[in-house]
Amino acid sequence: MKKKKIWFLALLMAFCLVMAGCNNETGTTSDEKSDGKLGGEITVWVHPYTGDAKKEEEMWKEIVANYNKDFPDVKVNIETIPWSNRDQKVLTALAANNGPDVFYAIPDQMPQYADAGMLLELDPYLEDSDLEGFVESSLVSTTWKDKKYGLPILQEAYTFFYNLDVVKAIGEDPSKLPTTWDEFEDWAAKAKAKDFYALSYAGGGSMNGTIYPWIWQAGGDVVTEDNKVLINSDESVKAFEMVNNMYKNKYIPEDSVTASNHNELWFGGKILAIFGSGIDITMLQKEGKFDFAIAPPLKNKEQLTYGTTGMFTVPSNSDNPDAAAEFVKAVTNADNQRIFNTVTQYIPTQEEAKDIFDSNEYMNQLSGYTQYALPGVIHPKGRAIMPFIQAEVQSMMAGEKTPQEAADAAAEQIEAELAKP
């Protein structure tokens, strides 16, 4: 971990030196504009979003063609880079001043890059009308300290998927799935009494899919953008208590402390519910072992859930920022989101583009829940603090600490991490 931080700081220093040496005050060069029109070229870094490279190639050709209808003098080069080591590749390229003009980012990358001055602020390029169609929750992850550094193209929404065979086995009505913590705990007790687990809890996985949603639903938070640590607030501690009670009562499997998934138990019909997303719809329909239903995100004090957001951003050292910013606006408009998300099967962040799922019952339902989806902890240290929280939750589940003690210990470690330069 220490070596990675030193590597990141070294790249950051190199990037700053490059930026100091740049002299591109207007963001465009003389040959990039002709008679008031954008020109030149831009390079866009994307990832393989499906397993069908040919289909994605055709997708990008169509999206670029749409962009060129308005900006015919801009040549767009689409380059697909692998998901592995993407942070290193992006940072190295930006520090060497030979990176892309547009690239895809996720919520825990954006604030790191924006806080370091690596991203172009998009607000000067945006009119109010440019943001009107977006789901409000999708813009959370594109904003850092009240400035927009990207526009979202896809979203996910996680919520509870129920095995209807188990629902019936515990004597409950499949048409009246739990909507609150109290209702879910009542079902959990009934599931346990019938020798089922109530929920899959992957304690060895990301906090986004484990304790964070419970924290948000309780009305709590982890850390704010101005470094206020809230993970040990009264509200957040209720989430620690909820997870601890589920484990003590054996509502979740014995290995939940470190498990990465419970697929065998789930597909084996031993679990009432999982915390799932679009990919689980595909898996459940493929397996076809039991009927299932999707419920709205649970509510305690708040009705919230987790759902990542994918966005396109522009580096602050782009050679053609005007054309790049216009591409970000174009690729995330409703028409192009329909093209992109029809191929990738993610949920559009433009409300009107969700009509691509009108004939897909489950995805149509799931897409309605993005309004409740938070993209994680939006903070430059968001990724760095996860291991601390995970370790304390695991310690609590192992019986070594009370929920309050675990939350306090996590808060202390987060504060120490935030104090580092």
Please provide the count of β strands.
Answer: 15
| Strand order across the largest sheet | 4-3-5-14-8
Beta-strand percent range: 5-15%
Low-confidence stretches: 17-36
Helicity level, as a percent range?
40-55%
Class computed from helices, strands and strand pairing: alpha/beta
**Helix segment tally:** 16
| Largest sheet, strands/sense/barrel | 5 strands, mixed
The CA-CA distance between the termini, in Å, is 15 Å
Rg measurement, Å: 23 Å
Mean pLDDT: 92
- The best one-word shape is globular
Report on the architecture of this protein.
This protein has 421 residues and is α/β, with parallel strands linked by helices. Helix content is 41%, strand content 14%. It contains 16 helices and 15 strands. It has helices at residues 2-21, 53-70, 86-95, 110-115, 128-131, 164-169, 181-193, 211-217, 234-248, 263-267, 278-287, 321-331, 334-344, 361-367, 386-397, 403-418; strands at 33-34, 37-38, 40-46, 74-80, 102-105, 143-144, 147-148, 151-155, 159-163, 197-199, 271-276, 292-294, 305-306, 309-313, 373-374. It has a five-stranded mixed beta sheet with strand order 4-3-5-14-8. The chain has a four-stranded mixed beta sheet with strand order 10-11-9-12. A hairpin with a 2-residue loop joins strand 6 and strand 7 (147-148). Helix 1 (2-21) packs parallel to helix 3 (86-95). The longest helix is centred in the N-terminal third of the chain and has 20 residues, at 2-21. The radius of gyration is 23 Å and the shape is globular.
